[in-house]
Design goal:
The structure holds 2 protein chains of 2 kinds.
Chain A: E1 6-15, E2 18-28, E3 33-37, H1 44-52, E4 58-64, E5 67-68, E6 76-79, H2 91-95, H3 97-101, H4 106-119, H5 135-148, E7 153-157, H6 165-182, E8 185-189, H7 193-199, E9 202-207, E10 212-218, H8 233-255
Parallel strand pairs in A: 3-8, 3-9, 6-7, 7-8
Antiparallel strand pairs in A: 1-2, 1-4, 4-5, 9-10
Helix pairs in contact in A: 4-5, 5-6, 7-8
Chain B: H1 2-45, H2 57-67, H3 71-102, H4 104-117, H5 126-133, H6 137-161, H7 165-173, H8 178-214, H9 221-230, H10 234-259, H11 273-279
Helix pairs in contact in B: 2-10, 3-4, 3-6, 3-8, 3-9, 5-6, 6-8, 7-8, 8-9, 8-10, 9-10
Classes of the chains: A alpha/beta, B mainly alpha.
């Protein structure tokens, strides 16, 4: 059996007097999507930044397919909450950016861009500039750009938090389709419980002060998943359960 | 079909309202210049002020004709010096700014020097430069280059400081090296800001040229101006002032023309409606 795609052991991060993360143990297997939820300030984005190689000063072990995390790299691409698409590049150049950096041939870039454009439904918009696209379309460009780098892990940092409900649900579905098709491993940080359940195979519930894993919840639904799943009693049961878990963790924090 | 008709109607309504507001705007803009010209004509026609101070349009024309022999060479000399000084200033200023942002060593070496130099008025250095570089075009070009590079060095550093950290993080996670982040993210991000500063520096460069020529030039428009002043030729001085403003406008137009394709990606051109009402468009 090969090494898990993400392996974190006793990961901690102390910043001054604050313990941001404490004793995180997490293993994510190849092709698995794991959501991370928790009250605000519980360090879920920091956890993602550690995996992305964008955080400094942490201790413990962090391995990606067996090799230690030393800094950011194209084996762990990120879709950020903020608009991270480069506004001075066309859709085509944004999507092909990681390949351009690797000095891939133009033919190679064209093939990948073409596949990605179909995958995220942006055919015909390749030569547009980001300012000509809607917020949802820019997020699609962002996802396509992150996938085009063919990472080991796709890191999603509350990517759809700023979108309206309908666009959000459509993008969650598209994310799931793309990830399933590419057999991508993903860590998906969100504060939207339905989103967390819909996209994930497993949900990490974090607690704050210090940021730690409170509980792990398995999501039993098969793929492919459709929008109707959200209205099933089983889905709503998990949702209710998570709601209570987060409430409890937030109350404990207030009491402490 | 009906949908097309509706959009057409909307567009027509909007373009009519825009056109009428543009027309009234043009009207408003003509009021003040027309008033100034009218007063000038009245003053010179009825000799309300000594023509030594305010010459008539005919005097201006006569001066233009009499200067026409020396003007081409003078314009050539001034334009040449200003362009050369500005080019050196842009390259040196932007280059220093980029280097300072890229390398902490360069930043530590230069930032104190820059902070000391910045408050020194560039014009105050003219006598010093004349002493160092002698009389001729070298000190004049040096003054223009120094004045413009100061502006551009400072604005380049501050523009880089304002680059979106999300864009930098995205580039790093997509595999960009430090150099690649500079080339593909930082430089394109600051281009619109930089072009704005280059326009400001270009406008300032004409003033630097005039001042530099006042103090020891053998040719050029500023030099010609000083000569005309010794002859009490007010209309000649005004003619040269007008030529300077035409040159400055032409240069600004050229820069704006060249920058258009480079700044197309910004939202600047799309500001309209309420935003334009608050900020003013253009």
């Amino acid at each position: 059996m090969s090494a898990p795609t993400i392996e974190l052991r006793d990961l901690s991060l102390v910043l001054g007097a604050n313990r941001i993360l404490s004793g995180i143990d997490l293993t994510v297997q190849r092709g698995e999507v794991v959501s991370v939820i928790g009250p605000s300030g519980c360090g879920k984005t920091t956890l993602l930044n550690v995996v992305a190689g964008l955080a400094e000063g942490w201790s413990g072990a962090g391995l990606i397919s067996g090799s230690p995390i030393t800094g950011p790299g194209p084996d762990r691409t990120v879709v950020f909450q903020e608009d991270a698409v480069f506004p001075w590049m066309t859709v085509r150049r944004n999507i092909g950016y990681a390949l351009e950096l690797r000095k891939a041939s133009q033919a190679q870039i064209d093939t990948v861009v073409s596949t990605m454009v179909d995958l995220v439904g942006l055919r015909g918009k390749e030569d547009m500039l980001p300012r000509q696209l809607s917020g949802g379309q820019r997020k699609r460009v962002d996802l396509a750009r992150a996938l085009a780098a063919t990472p080991e892990v796709l890191l999603m940092d509350e990517p759809y938090a700023a979108l309206d409900q309908m666009t959000k649900q459509r993008l969650q579905q598209e994310f799931l389709n793309a990830v399933t098709r590419e057999q991508m491993t993903s860590l998906f940080v969100t504060h939207d419980l339905e989103e967390a359940i819909f996209v994930a195979d497993r949900i990490i519930v974090m607690a704050a002060a210090p940021g730690r894993i409170q509980e792990v919840v398995d999501v039993p639904f098969d793929h492919p998943r459709s929008a109707d799943l959200r209205t099933t009693p089983e889905f709503q049961d998990i949702r209710r359960y998570l709601d209570h878990a987060i409430q409890a963790s937030a109350e404990r924090q207030i009491a402490a | 079909m009906s949908a097309t008709a509706t959009t057409t109607t909307h567009r027509t309504v909007r373009s009519i309202s825009r056109r009428s507001s543009a027309r009234s705007g043009r009207w408003m803009r003509a009021v003040v210049p027309a008033g100034v010209i009218a007063i000038w004509l009245l003053v010179s026609e009825f000799r309300l002020v000594d023509p030594l101070y305010i010459p008539s349009p005919q005097d201006l024309w006569a001066s233009l004709v009499s200067l026409s022999g020396v003007l081409p060479a003078a314009i050539g000399a001034s334009v040449g010096m200003t362009m050369l000084g500005l080019a050196i200033g842009v390259i040196f200023g932007v280059g220093t700014g980029l280097l300072m942002a890229y390398s902490p060593v360069v930043r530590d070496l230069l930032s104190d020097l820059m902070d000391i130099m910045r408050p020194v008025p560039v014009f105050a250095l003219i006598p010093l430069f004349a002493l160092w570089f002698g009389i001729g075009i070298a000190p004049q070009i040096a003054i223009i280059a120094l004045g413009t590079s100061m502006v551009l060095g400072v604005t380049t550093v501050s523009a880089i400081r304002n680059v979106s950290s999300t864009h930098v993080k995205a580039a790093l996670t997509l595999g960009a090296t430090r150099g690649q982040v500079y080339r593909t993210v930082i430089v394109p991000s600051i281009v619109p800001h930089l072009l704005g500063s280059i326009r400001v520096a270009a406008a300032a460069s004409w003033g630097l040229d005039v001042a530099a020529e006042f103090l020891g030039a053998q040719q050029g428009l500023g030099y010609t101006m000083i000569v005309r002043q010794q002859y009490l030729d007010t209309s000649g001085i005004i003619v040269i002032c007008l030529i300077y403003s035409l040159l400055a406008l032409a240069l600004d137009y050229v820069i704006r023309y060249l920058e258009a394709p480079l700044t197309r990606w910004t939202d600047r051109t799309t500001a309209g409606g309420a935003v334009a009402g608050v900020l003013g468009s253009n």
